[in-house]
Amino acid sequence: MIPRRSVQFLLGVYNKRRLTTSSVINHPPELLDDLVRRGFIHDVTRRDHLRVSLQTTQGVYAGIDPTASSLHVGHLIPLMCLLHFHLRGHRVIPLIGGATGRVGDPSGRSVERQLADVEQVENNVQCLQKSVRSFFSRAVAYAETRHGAVQEERFLPVVESNLKWHSQLTMLDFLQSVGIHARVNTMLNRESVRARLSSQQGLSFTEFTYQLLQAYDFYHLYKHHNCSIQVGGSDQWGNILAGLELIGRLDDGPSAPATSHTGAYGITTPLLTTSSGEKFGKSAGNAIWLNPDQTSVFDFYQYFLKVSDADVERYLNLFTLMTSQDIQNVMGVHVDHPEKRVAQRRLAAEVTEMVHTPEGLVNAETLTGLFFESDYAGLKVKDILLALKDDPRLVLVSEEEMRATPIYKLASRHGLASSNSAARALVASRGLYVNDIVVCDIQTHIPIEHLIDGRVAIMRAGKDKICILILETS
């Protein structure tokens, strides 16, 4: 593991009382500037007004579409953005689209979504609410280990579902309260609508009204939860503006200009792609999930470990709470010795610890050391046992078996070769290794005194097959 540097708390010194709407937040660096520097801001409404508003506690929300039962790494952009607000004392509201998920957002899509199964959406909403709560709980713990205790009496965000209020609205209620204020010509000019209208398939009325449903979400949260800021991807710009217009007309009166309202704001984050143009968060075409049952902690760690040199500094800013100075220090070492992948290792360690806890990070680094590293000196028996629990490649052996059995027979016995003769051929071709040392003689035994951490022998056949022998304790 790369040693942690002791760094100054980037979030400043927290007040030792809970912030209220009149509380002044004086945390260097200034929040909006920090978000810009880190790469979270694609566009923002009335930037100067927002900067002033952020001197007092604001409510901030971001929507999550319940198209799956797990968060994936693409969700880390809005979640990390909300985390920065949360750690500065603002009230954040992660909003799961329990209602809008049944309709489907046309933004960024060339064809219409299939209508979702209601039961599946409900299950996804429940799973995502649990996942989001877990993310913030672990992310706050991660922040505390890096920068000290988070403010006393800080409550974790309340994860809402917009079905909570949409289910109470009849169609007539919605048309009277929302539809009356919507201008069709404005809705037609939204990029997401224009792109679909020019396509062969066109746009259904169901998808056309999506922006009104999301606009009402913003208004409802503004009116009933004192929420003044919506965060969304850059493809959500039109939907965010629709929400600001609705707030303006409902709050300031139907005759007020759509842009007159000064109490609400929109922030969009960039749609992230890799330096090669691929969509961020995909590996071999598959999504990288935050749920360890869908993407193992080891594979999650490996995804970030394998990012390109061109992307790693940007990801350090977006997906960690490292200070600017700390990132510069890491990148300085990385530029001098790129072959060591210091920046990627730090990135993978930081993100994995935040999402999967320190224990998850130890497991991922242990497996990485076993499978891909040649220096085994830092490996510990207890970490190997935890990382490879129930893995058939982990084998407990007696001291008698290890002392009495030639290595080639151990290789055959524990699956590295199909037979003793195949194991002998492997030795003859110099393709059998123990603790990264080539086995040159078929009569060689594993020296007990050379075991890693006194108990471990890592046997490898070629590049892909591995078996970890651990000496049983008496």
From TrEMBL:
SUPFAM superfamilies hit by this protein: Alpha-L RNA-binding motif, Nucleotidylyl transferase
- The superkingdom listed in its UniProt entry is Eukaryota
- Please list the GO terms describing molecular function: ATP binding; RNA binding; tyrosine-tRNA ligase activity
Q: Which GO terms describe its biological process?
A: tyrosyl-tRNA aminoacylation
* Pfam families for the chain: tRNA-synt_1b
Substrates-to-products reaction catalysed: tRNA(Tyr) + L-tyrosine + ATP = L-tyrosyl-tRNA(Tyr) + AMP + diphosphate + H(+)
E.C. designation(s): 6.1.1.1
Q: Which UniProt keywords apply?
A: Aminoacyl-tRNA synthetase, ATP-binding, Ligase, Nucleotide-binding, Protein biosynthesis, RNA-binding
Q: How is this protein annotated for GO cellular component?
A: cytosol; mitochondrion
What's its top-level EC category?
ligase
Which HAMAP family does this one have?
Answer: Tyr_tRNA_synth_type1
In which family does this protein belong, per the annotation? Belongs to the class-I aminoacyl-tRNA synthetase family.
Name recorded for this polypeptide: Tyrosine--tRNA ligase
Recall the taxonomic lineage recorded for the source organism: Eukaryota, Fungi, Dikarya, Basidiomycota, Agaricomycotina
